[in-house]
Protein 1
Amino acid sequence: MGDVTKEMLYAEVVEPDRRLGETVSSLEELVSLMRVTNRELAEGRARTEALKQALFGNRFETAG
């Protein structure tokens, strides 16, 4: 087996840091996308509830 140099050790230490940075960046993008998706879902639920109320009034509440 060959000699281990400082450059080889440095490369072994830096690579996980680089990958960790990429992972953090990807997670931040995912969180942002999830927030947008949750907001859109909440808006859709609100529209659905408003339509149900307009179409059926309180019939669902008294029947259940």
Protein 2
Amino acid sequence: MVKDVKTSTTDTAIKPRYVTTPDAAIHLGLSPRTLEKHRCYGTGPTYRKLGGRVVYGIDDLEAWAELGMRRSTSDPGWGEVRPAKQGSPHAPVKAAKS
């Protein structure tokens, strides 16, 4: 005789700590290409390389997005999310060719 064993399942899904570029872009409401540009220019959220894969921590994405938080158009805020373009103050400067 086989007993019917009920396993208790909970609705607590394990949330990922790290997400790939496409998933991070969806989380932030950006295109993956924009996020890649931010990564190249040094203006985006902190990322990690695990093997050959680029991943973003959910907490890092949230912290970067918080830099752009404002309560009104006159609110100067305490940080700034820079555009993904060369020449941004936080972007690395290319060395001059000799």
Protein 3
Amino acid sequence: MENIRDIKKHLQQEDYLEISKITGYSPEYIKNCVNYRRNNRLIVMAAQEILVSAQQV
């Protein structure tokens, strides 16, 4: 998953809070980036961390 479009398909509601803790961005800002496909590299990296750790559990 390299960009917001790919990640959007896999994020759940609680993931936005986790990404918020990692990035310091508000959950609303993150949702806007995802919904309007604003590719923010920090959000993508944080989401990848969360999704990878969720798959390992």
